[in-house]
């Protein structure tokens, strides 16, 4: 596959165009090209560029959300083919992700999950309004490395502490690390509840996850 094709894949992510990203992924498969190469050399560089632009204030949250949607569209086409070929990307770790009980906000959490998956993590997204015990149950079931907890309301932040306590009761701490985030969440709060990491946004969450697993 020529480099210009990878550049076009990259641009589909930068443009936040899920339809174009999926079309390019299908073209990749029809051409017999390596889907892993398309992900690593085509689509992920686009997501990295958007993340860098977001970090320096040149692109904004809607751009990041759209880039995430485009990435998901490409992965939805390519990953089944990779499984059928018996190839897969290197997995950096397993992350159980969700918004804590009492909180139904999902956009930020979903974006974090997309970014983590794009960067090589195996993500188990439990959705929103998730009971503390459910996080612990899933973490034990999949042998998770990290549990990621989102809270968008000050009234539900304490749910993050509840999950850490549930993990302790299940005997999963400190092996399973906990990462927290959300609009009202601060590094001070993360320290107070003995979380292992804090992500101010999706880019920060990926960096923290990589730090936690030593990647």
Name the descriptors:
215 residues; alpha/beta; five-stranded parallel sheet; 9 helices; globular
Largest sheet: 5 strands, parallel
Based on CA inertia axes, which overall geometry fits?
A: globular
Rg of Cα set: 18 Å
Q: Which percent band covers the strand fraction?
A: 5-15%
Q: What does this entry look like structurally?
A:
This protein is α/β, with parallel strands linked by helices. The protein is built from 9 helices and 5 strands; from the N terminus they run H-H-H-H-E-H-E-H-E-H-E-H-E-H. The protein has a 5-stranded parallel β-sheet, with helices on both faces.
Helix and strand arrangement:
Layout: H1 3-14, H2 18-30, H3 35-55, H4 61-85, E1 93-99, H5 107-118, E2 121-125, H6 132-142, E3 146-150, H7 158-169, E4 177-181, H8 187-192, E5 197-199, H9 202-213
Parallel strand pairs: 1-2, 1-3, 3-4, 4-5
Task: Please provide a brief summary of the model.
By secondary structure, the chain is α/β, with parallel strands linked by helices.
